[in-house]
């Protein structure tokens, strides 16, 4: 099974309900089930974008912005989501980006321009980047970055938190 980057837009109230459910359940199951329209599967695209940045533009400010968008800020507040019904236990448990932080991330993502990086694709591929990719990595990265940006923009506009995890 392939690992993919997952995100969910949720209210703090929903997280509170999941916390209460987990605390009262014998097995700790939070009954995590965010609406399909508020979830996003980024496949491995953003991880590859980060690898690409680190190789071609180490130290670029974009790296920390993108990392924050998929790594979150804290796990403490949502430790109850560290459950097999939420994620398979590979890697770190889910992390939270609070509504205030979501607005910050959305603003930072809106300011990023990945096109200058994408112009280095031929050099990156020559160096072995995207070795297993059979499609057009430019299109793949642009589409998934746009999805990430739009996801955060919508979450910020709606005042929602974002939960991130690998599954």
- Find the count of extended strands (DSSP E, 2+ residues): 4
Order of helices and strands: EHEHHEHHHHE
How many structural domains does the protein architecture include? 1
Uncertain residue segments: none
Structural class: alpha+beta
User: Rg to the nearest angstrom?
Assistant: 17 Å
pLDDT averaged over residues: 94
Gross morphology is: globular
Count of discrete alpha- or pi-helical segments spanning 4 or more residues: 7
Helix content: 40-55%
Spatial order of the strands forming the largest sheet: 2-1-4-3
Largest β sheet strand count, sense and barrel closure: 4 strands, antiparallel
Strand content: 5-15%
State the end-to-end CA separation.
9 Å
Q: Topology of this protein?
A:
Blueprint lengths: L4 E6 L1 H13 L14 E3 L3 H12 L4 H11 L23 E3 L1 H13 L3 H4 L2 H6 L10 H22 L2 E6 L1
Antiparallel strand pairs: 1-2, 1-4, 3-4
Helix pairs in contact: 2-3, 2-7, 3-4, 4-7
Protein name: DUF1877 family protein
Pfam family, one: DUF1877
InterPro entries: DUF1877 (IPR015068), YfbM-like_sf (IPR035944)
């Amino acid at each position: 099974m392939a690992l993919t980057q997952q995100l969910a837009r949720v209210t703090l109230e929903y997280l509170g309900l999941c916390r209460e459910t987990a605390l009262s359940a014998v097995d700790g199951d939070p009954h995590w089930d965010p609406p399909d329209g508020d979830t996003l599967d980024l496949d491995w695209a953003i991880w590859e974008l980060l690898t690409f940045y680190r190789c071609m533009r180490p130290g670029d400010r974009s790296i920390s912005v993108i990392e924050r968008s998929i790594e979150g800020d804290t796990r403490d507040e949502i430790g109850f989501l560290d459950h097999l019904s939420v994620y398979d236990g590979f890697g770190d448990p889910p992390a939270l980006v609070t509504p205030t932080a979501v607005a910050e991330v959305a603003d930072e993502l809106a300011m990023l321009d990945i096109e200058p990086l994408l112009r280095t694709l031929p050099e990156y591929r020559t160096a072995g980047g995207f070795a297993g990719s059979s499609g057009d990595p430019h299109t793949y990265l642009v589409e998934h970055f746009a999805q990430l940006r739009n996801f955060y923009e919508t979450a910020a506009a709606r005042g929602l938190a974002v939960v991130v995890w690998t599954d």
